[in-house]
Specification:
- The complex is a heterodimer of chains A (221) and B (188).
- Chain A has helices at residues 22-34, 98-107, 138-147, 154-161, 165-177, 195-206, 211-219; strands at residues 13-18, 38-44, 50-53, 58-60, 75-81, 95-96, 121-125, 181-185.
- Chain A is of the alpha+beta class.
- In chain A, strand 3 (50-53) and strand 4 (58-60) form a beta hairpin.
- Chain B is α/β, with parallel strands linked by helices and 188 residues long.
- Chain B has a single domain, classed as P-loop containing nucleotide triphosphate hydrolases (Rossmann fold, 3-Layer(aba) Sandwich), CATH 3.40.50.
- Helix content of chain B is 35%, strand content 26%.
- The radius of gyration of chain B is 16 Å and the shape is globular.
- The two termini of chain B are 28 Å apart.
- Classes of the chains: A alpha+beta (221), B alpha/beta (188).
- At the A-B interface, helix 3, helix 6 and helix 7 of A face strand 4, helix 5, strand 8 and helix 6 of B.
Amino acid sequence: MSYPISSAGAPPVAAPATVGWSAAAIAVRSILQISTPLLLRLVPQGHEPIYIDFRHHAFLWPTPISAFPAIPLSVDVETEPVPEGAPPLFDPPGQNLDNLLWPIGLNAFGGQSASWLRPNDRYRLKRWPNFTEMNHTVEQMRMTALLGTVALTPEELADAVGADVRVARQLVNALSLMDILLVSNLVAAPAEAAPETRATLRESATTRDSLFSRLRKRIGG
Amino acid sequence: MAEHVILFAGPMGAGKTTAIQTLSEIDVVLTEAENTERDVADKPTTTVALDYGEITLGDDEKVRLYGVPGQRRFDFMWEILKERAIGLVLLVNNDAPDPVASVLEFLEEFGELYDRGGVVIGISRADVSATPTVADYADAIAVRRPDLVVPIFTIDARNASQMHMVLMTLILNIETRAAMKASGHLSS
């Protein structure tokens, strides 16, 4: 494992390469959950390596994030423990890790729910993603606004905004990978948004009479 | 004439005037005077009454953009303007002393809009000072109102697409909460 800044430590551990970003997403999620100081190197085929320093919630990639490959043929994943007191992997502050986790989460799992998500859970936003630094769609904005108000499953979310369920799953995957969702169990918790409520929301989201729609028509977006 | 009043508030030097200039389709009405607090914000002039800009949506509908003075000695203007407002864009410069405390203070002042979900926070100069992070602001706000998720974005007030996104998010949030309230889901 070759880093821009050398760091002494245990030898790197390589995982088998898989198509797309799913394995990378699972690796990132696992490391974030155990809060162990690890370095991660992701190498999407045909692209420069991406270095992640979880201690500083930062990454380094010479390629502009706008050129992020949605479906790489393979992504090699390597981890390396960080010795206590080791210097940052690259000059701080680097780039905010959220700006990388967003496209990884959106593009992993091929429109299915992330492997760590449970079908009986509802999700609500803890904080908004920093959309000024992330490519996003109006549909993703609508769904995010809704998750800021009510806890929903990806299926309920899709229903409430009139979106494809795969798009809702991709959003929930990305927000979950960024660890900005609260989770409540569908069975234990009462319905947060009944079908009639979702119908009202869907009507509100799609109506051309909304101020949002008129403003969007006027200034774009 | 349908009017939708949006306020731009925040400490001196946060970019309120620039944000309105970026969004407004008319020449912004500026009411600036000599800055007597150069130790707080090092710029020669500051807003003493208000800035005004607008976006026309049709023959009989406008979004009116008001920048309120950042200095507390003009806070009587805040009371007048917030009664008419549907939403607030709260701007703060990240390299100011204790910007998180500043945000909490303004949220307290504009509590009614905050409680309605009509607030978006824009953090300027995050390229100059990387901390506090967006998460730091969100954590501090959550202590007071864990049930209310306020959109927080890093911004450059000169960037039109960013300011459009901030304004659109504010309106989207207000309308989403209104729809939830109309369906009986939200009580406040």
